[in-house]
Design goal:
3-stranded antiparallel β-sheet
């Protein structure tokens, strides 16, 4: 079953730019400058999205001199994926059992 934490994460990841950032960070740890180059987003817009991802626990920061690098926390993505997997298994079992609520 999806929890309120899961639904909050789904909302965070539903934004196309945030999903793009997460996809890029799945492949390598990047700083804001790299993410601006890769996404074409303005730095202020990107920083706002990174803040949302950071507050949701999806990414973590790693200071490196005057730069801040961002790294994906795969366990967070796995937790949401696991919730969807459980939901799909429940749907399969429900369909196999022919479970249907009668109309009043």
């Amino acid at each position: 079953m999806l929890t309120s934490v899961d639904t909050d994460l789904i909302r965070v990841l539903a934004d196309p730019l945030r999903l793009r950032i997460v996809t890029l960070l799945a492949h390598e740890t990047l700083c804001t400058t790299h993410l601006v180059e890769e996404t074409g987003a303005r730095q202020t817009n990107l920083s706002n999205h990174l803040k949302v991802l950071r507050e949701a626990g999806v990414v973590e920061t790693e200071p490196c001199g005057r730069f801040t690098y961002y790294k994906l926390r795969p366990e967070v993505i796995e937790a949401v994926a696991g919730s969807f997997s459980d939901l799909a298994a429940t749907a399969r079992a429900t369909a196999a059992a022919g479970k249907k609520r009668a109309c009043p």
